[in-house]
Design a protein that fits this description.
The protein is an alpha+beta fold. It has helices spanning 10-20, 69-75, 90-95, 106-109, and strands at residues 24-25, 27-33, 36-42, 45-50, 53-59, 79-83, 114-115, 124-125, 130-139, 148-159, 176-178, 181-184, 187-188. A hairpin with a 2-residue loop joins β2 and β3 (36-42). The mean pLDDT is 87. Keywords: Flavoprotein, FMN.
């Protein structure tokens, strides 16, 4: 089957891409503004380069068309912490996708334990086995898109002792996104 994306609706294109480029890791991003720690998952997320260490995450808009809190916080100068999601954190991560008022923290609303590893960065999810501490560098707007790709520079990383060895080999059981389902180590879990 040959498909012409110029003839397809946005929801069809999303379905095709999200079920084709798999598994996509989930960036569980925490940002901070005026003392409120925001935590939200994003599945349009990939590494971009090693030198400099860069990632890209694409952020949609709220239902009313305004920027999501994460993007608003990026633009307000917030540092960025990305916690990775293990199987045990899947339900909490799904809850944190719920849209809350800008002044309410998902950490507090959903009782997600946090810990601050580096003072100027937002907290990470306490039981995450890995977190990347990043600085937002720029947006890369796409004409006609509801999504805003954002470049993030990785400045620090946290790994639980049991997932990294002295040679820097990392063994994580991160959840990835496959369409509307989640995948871990090649196995669909929901």
């Amino acid at each position: 089957m040959l498909l012409d994306f110029s003839t397809l609706e946005e929801t069809s294109i999303y379905k095709l891409i999200s079920n084709t480029i798999t598994p996509r890791p989930i960036a569980w991003i925490s940002t901070e503004h005026e003392g409120v720690c925001n935590l939200a998952p994003f599945s349009y997320f990939i590494p971009l380069s090693s030198k400099p260490p860069m990632l890209i995450v694409s952020i949609g808009k709220k239902e009313d068309g305004s920027p999501k809190d994460t993007l608003a916080n990026f633009l307000n100068g917030s540092y960025v912490t990305i916690s990775f999601v293990s199987k045990e954190l899947k339900d909490a991560m799904s809850q944190s996708a719920t849209e809350l008022p800008y002044t309410k923290s998902e950490f507090e609303a959903f009782n997600i334990a946090s810990k601050r590893c580096i003072p100027e960065y937002p907290p990470m999810v306490e039981s995450s086995q890995c977190a990347l501490f990043c600085r937002f560098t720029q947006t890369m707007p796409i004409e006609g898109s509801k999504h805003t790709p954002c470049l993030l520079r990785v400045e620090h990383a946290y790994y639980a002792d049991e997932v990294i060895d002295e040679a820097l080999h990392v063994k994580l059981d991160n959840i990835g996104r496959v369409g509307a389902k989640f995948l871990i180590n090649g196995e669909i879990i929901s």
